[in-house]
Design brief:
This protein is an alpha/beta fold. Helices cover 36% and strands 19% of the residues. The strands form two sheets. Strands 1-2-10-3-9-8-7-6 form an eight-stranded mixed β-sheet, with helices on both faces. The protein has a two-stranded antiparallel ribbon with strand order 4-5. Strand 4 and strand 5 form a beta hairpin. The longest helix is centred in the N-terminal third of the chain and has 24 residues. It binds O-phosphotyrosine (PTR) (2 copies). The site of one O-phosphotyrosine (PTR) has 10 residues, from helix 6.
Length: 311
């Protein structure tokens, strides 16, 4: 971590921004054919945020009369730290994809959903209301009946316990829905503290969920993927996952590599991390985390460390 602080101080904000610019200029390493198919275009929230064919999540075919494009959803598998498919990064569901979204959650055995946007921000719809907000309410989405059984309020997030009922098979499952409300509409949080607390909460919940699965889970160790989404599923989603990966690595072997983490992530979910402040935030949040955990003494930042446009 000390090396990381030296690195950030030496490069200054401007150098880190340039590092991000270089990553951003690299062309995506794959095709977007499925996202571009005519019948799938309406399933993309943003026409410029598509998902790579190689890592896309395929919905299982439900019946013979569905055509070959019906397995499409704008969602990508992403690896975590030493875990393949630790996350599914996806866009904020659209009303016409609510059913597909819940189908994906069911098929991939997802137990935790992390939402890092609000439904409406600055008067613009960022994500559809795809889950019942109030306790006791139930809604039907596609083949699924989704019931909100209990809501817990925290300062920076809201945790809804949802019950998912598969009307085709008659099975039920519990899913935790985390709504993080403190991410500013534009830019990044000043302090990472609330985000770090949030991540901690999600981690603990994931461990408990994996334990509860026991031998019914036959996939990779670490359990089913966590669904992470914002509006487009690249900016805040990429930032949250990058931070999670970097901190897991820091805890394990004591080092971090933001640059490689983001480059690798972009091979699975193109355009992950949308702005340079989100990229810079990953660095400062790791430093804040190390300070918090006593792995690092408080860092003094001089004005020149934080300048962006001086030589
Ligand atoms: N890329 C946008 C533009 O070209 O105007 C800027 C932008 C970025 C707008 C993110 C909205 C954004 O949304 P969110 O608050 O969901 O990250
Ligand atoms: N075309 C949109 C824009 O640039 O405004 C795409 C977009 C929207 C990209 C939101 C990123 C966005 O942010 P996030 O991934 O954090 O929701």
């Amino acid at each position: 971590v000390h090396e990381l602080v030296d690195y950030v101080k030496r490069k200054k904000k401007k150098g880190i921004y340039q590092e991000y610019e270089e990553i951003r200029k690299e062309p995506p390493g794959g095709t977007f054919d499925y996202s571009k198919k005519l019948s799938n275009q309406i399933k993309n929230r943003y026409s410029d945020v598509l998902c790579l064919d190689q890592s896309r999540v395929r919905l299982c075919q439900l019946s013979d009369d569905e055509d070959e494009t019906s397995d499409y959803i704008n969602a990508s598998f992403m690896d975590g730290y030493k875990r393949s498919n630790a996350y599914i990064a996806t866009q904020g569901p659209l009303p016409k994809t609510f059913g597909d979204f819940w189908r994906m959650v069911w098929e991939q055995m997802v137990l935790i959903i992390v939402m890092t946007t609000r439904v409406v921000e600055r008067g613009r719809v960022k994500c559809g209301q795809y889950w019942p907000l109030e306790e006791g309410r139930a809604e039907q989405h596609g083949y699924f009946l989704v019931r909100n059984t209990h809501v817990q309020l925290f300062q920076d997030f809201k945790l809804s316990h949802l019950e998912l009922y598969n009307t085709q098979s008659g099975e039920r499952r519990e899913v935790c829905h985390y709504l993080y409300v403190s991410w500013p509409d534009f830019g990044v949080p000043k302090s990472a503290s609330a985000m770090l607390d949030f991540r901690e909460h999600v981690l603990q919940r994931r461990e408990a969920a994996v334990q509860s699965l026991g031998s019914t889970w036959t996939g990779p160790p670490g359990g089913p993927p966590v669904v992470v989404h914002c509006s487009a599923g690249i900016g805040r989603t990429g930032t949250f996952c990058t931070l999670d990966i970097c901190l897991s690595r820091l805890e394990d072997i004591g080092t971090i590599d933001v640059r490689q983490t983001v480059r690798r992530m972009r091979t699975q979910r193109a355009f992950s991390i949308q702005t340079w402040d989100q990229y810079y935030f990953c660095y400062t949040a790791v430093i804040e985390y190390a300070q918090r955990n006593g792995k690092l003494s408080p860092v003094q930042w001089s004005d020149s460390d934080l300048e962006t446009d001086s030589e």
